[in-house]
Here is the input.
Amino acid sequence: MVSILHLSDIHMGSGFCHGRINPETGLNTRLEDFVASLSRCIDRAIAEPADLVLFGGDAFPDATPPPLVQQAFAGQFRRLADAGIPTVLLVGNHDQYAQGQGGASLSIYRTLGVPGVIVGDRLTTHRIDTANGTVQVVTLPWLTPSTLLTRPELEGLSMAAVNQRLVDRLRVALEGEVRQLDPDLPTVLLAHVMTDTATFGAERFLAVGKGFTVPLALLTRPCFDYIALGHVHRHQVLCDRPLTVYPGSIERVDFSEVDEEKGYMWVTVVQGQTEAQFCPLPVRPFQALSLDVTAAADPQAELLGAIAQAKIQDAVVRLNYRIYPGQLEQVDTAALFDALLPAHTYSINPQLVSPVSRPRLPELGEGHHLSPITALQAYLANRDDLAELAEDMLAAAQSLLTDQPDDSAAIDLTVPDSEPEPEPVHQLRLL
Ligand SMILES: [Mn+2]
Here is the structure.
């Protein structure tokens, strides 16, 4: 039995706009949050201890993180090296520089020869000796078209056709790896991929360009005792046999992950009977408040009420509300700031609704079907300045609506056989 801690999508250094500067450290609090979450994973790996740690890719928001962020990341993984726990760092799409043409941010660990650290930047099989025996780990990093196809092969192909070619090549390449596996050793596939059956989240928007989708069936081969995935930020189990899991990201990257539980997987790999458990991390809460106060007599009371009911303590809060420009003076923004003080950080985004879209007369609004005369009566009843004209206007409208044009003035809608006579001007009076 080999115990593995599987985590993914750290994205350390992202979401700084949701943090603030910690006056004691000078660091953005969101960097501190991400480091704290990662350190909880590493703590667990060392405390148990895990026989192996698998990182599923996407260490940073991009391949060139600031040195401060790189150091924070390296400082945590260094603890595993010190504890003698082998670690595989898989390259995700965010770790590649220039679509893989300029290397990957994680490759420095191989260059430096950090003991026990393996960088998975190509499809290959690693035999890793752990405290509880040898494990085979097949690494499948994020693939770009240039990884598997040459430029002439790509020319003139649609995205769908490129995807299909890549899948065909990957099938062959993976088959090559599978055939040389030792069937007597526990085997794990570690892959940074978008699978066709996953439920997507923020990673859709974070990925540059359109990703390449791998059919799950291509990966779930019986030779694997566990399939450790990365890329999708929402934790999900895609298959029971072999157990195929996205642990998800370890912190919320943005508001699209507001309701997602964050954590990592604790896996015990036994050939034929692997078990895995999702271990939640106590990450910082996000709270998205969304209100429409256009119908409110007291918009301020509605806003304060919504804030009072929400769990905002130490949370990253976003308050969005729809309001008419005419109501703005009823909102005391300073009082909203006070109400939001228990939050970690907050943003307030009033969305001004154009008053044009407001039905000025409710009886003329959507869902009311009135005759033209009734509608005119409703309009005139609300226009005191037109009171003197109202009677005449109604009479004029009535005559317009009931006046049947005589035959000579009728508009002929049939298609004429021959060139029509020029129409008299007075025929246009009804148009
Ligand atoms: Mn990714």
About this structure: The chain has three domains: 2-280, 286-356, 359-431.
